[in-house]
Amino acid sequence: MLTLKKVHHIAIICSNYHKSKAFYTELLGLEIIQEIYRKERDSYKLDLSLNGTYIIELFSFPNPPKRASRPESTGLRHLAFQVNDIETNVAVLQQQGVVVEAIRIDPHTGKKFTFFADPDGLPLELYEQ
Question: Which site among 20, 29, 41, 49 is 20 to 30 Å from 118 CA-CA?
Fold first, then answer.
């Protein structure tokens, strides 16, 4: 058996780097650890943290292929963020023009959750703890 300790990071490839950078930093509030432009690949790599914990690598590449994400495609289903007050966070997203699904209750935990998407349609979830 492996001896995994925790998830180190999640890598996301975006189609519009500047739009996705603004979404993840200005709207979601992730902090920039470092930003690198790799000239030989015509690619940006943006390392992002949440509350001081490194979690996302945001990449750009010229003309990345589309990836099917719905309905229920094989592969990563969604990325979930824990929040304390789901209604307040949903209101912030909606004020910025982000379409957010209706808040639901997890029948197994009794916790509130909802889904929205990043600029490339990657499903994101808010889960109230």
Answer: 41
